[in-house]
Amino acid sequence: ESARGLDSQLGVTRTVSSTASSIGRLWGDLQITERASSLVNNDVVKGASETMRGTLETTGVKGVWESQSQKLKNLDQEHHLSTTAVGTLSSGMNWLTGQIKSHTGHNEDK
Question: b/e per residue, 75-107, with b = 16+ CB within 10 A?
């Protein structure tokens, strides 16, 4: 209930809805979907993509990329970097939620 009150005071839902609607209209007016689709399906773009893929494979860049990606993955697994980052983010979100609740008068103990 307090979240609804806060939302009505700040107008978050109204603002997000209005913004999304404006972006959707702009997207449609500019015909971005159609233009992107025609660009991706263009023979020149397809040819360039195939050339780049071939160059990456023949120059060894692809192998280096895969090797470094694997090293990074191994480092993460060894030191649990992703898990630690997610845990830290989760703690921060819990703190933020607690702060919002305390400032809106919402308390789980009630």
Answer: eeeeeeeeeeeeeeeeeeeeeeeeeeeeeeeee
pLDDT tens digits for range 30-72: 777 777 777 777 777 778 878 887 887 788 777 888 888 888 8
Q: Are 67 and 73 in contact (CB under 8 A)?
A: no
The candidate with the shortest Cα–Cα distance to 82, out of 92, 91, 72, is 72
pLDDT in tens, 67-100: 888 888 888 888 888 888 888 888 888 888 888 8
Cα maximum dimension of the chain:
67
**pTM for the whole thing?**
0.36
Distance in angstroms (rounded) separating the CA atoms of residues 15 and 83: 34
Kindly report each contact of residues 22-29 with a partner whose C-beta sits within 8 Å and lies 24 or more positions away, as own/partner. Answer: none
Tokens 């607690």 sit on residue:
98
